[in-house]
Amino acid sequence: MWRVSLTLFVLAIFAGGTFAQDQDSVSKAVTVAMARAGERADSNPISTYHFVEVFQVRGKWIYPDIGYVDFGHNNYREFFAGGGYTLYKSKRITAIGELLYGQSLGPAAHSARWLIPWTELQYRFTSKLGVEASYFAYAPLNSTAIVQHVLERVKLEYEIKNRWKIGAGYGGKHVENKPWQNKPFLTTTIITKGGDFEFWLQRLPQNIFQVQIRYKLVH
Fold first, then answer.
1. Of 178, 158, 160, nearest to 168 (Cα)?
2. Can you give the CATH number for the domain in which 187 is found?
3. Confidence (pLDDT) at 27
4. How far is CA 9 from CA 15, 156, 178, 196, in A?
């Protein structure tokens, strides 16, 4: 699993650099590359998901935004693409909205397609303490797609030192005709010149624990 994770991290960095090469023609464009991987934290570790995303911020606009996610299985994966806009930004508050197109692939996917409205809210109590929330929904575009609601995170984070943060938060998910899933977590982030490395310990349903590595590079 960690070999796959490393490959995803390298791909994210490479993709970010490739996008950045085109910035000479786009004033003040900022490229963000992210890669994430999860694994069950038990005696029989199982890969839970892989995620890669690259997008550009051009002033208040966000485009293009493209990404990939799977859930540790070879028979199902999702690709998404779209863009968005910074709806509001002040010293303390930032609100971002995007609209993405999602396409599933693989034998278990049945070619499901969605529109995915995505939102993120950030609030800064102080220069060291802040909270952020990310939510998105899957709106079906064909008969094989199902409605899903994903609270990806509500995270309270505190900066202990210039390059170290700790935090705690909550995530959850609701899939059509199934009960809500609770996913609380603890997190720590190490900030380096080569990007931010964030580590999660998250409790999944049925009292299963998951370890995540989240990487973010801003260029």
1. 158
2. 2.40.160.40
3. 57
4. 10, 25, 33, 12
Domain that holds residue 137: 2-218
Q: Are 56 and 78 in contact (CB under 8 A)?
A: no
77-126: per-residue pLDDT in tens? 999 999 999 999 999 999 999 999 999 999 999 999 999 999 999 999 99
Q: What is the pLDDT of residue 51?
A: 98
Half-sphere exposure of 97 (CA within 13 A, CB side): 3
For residue 4, is pLDDT > 70?
Answer: no
End-to-end CA distance of the chain: 27
DSSP-assigned letter for residue 17: H
Pairing of strands 148-161, 195-204: unpaired
When divided into structural domains, the chain yields a total of 1
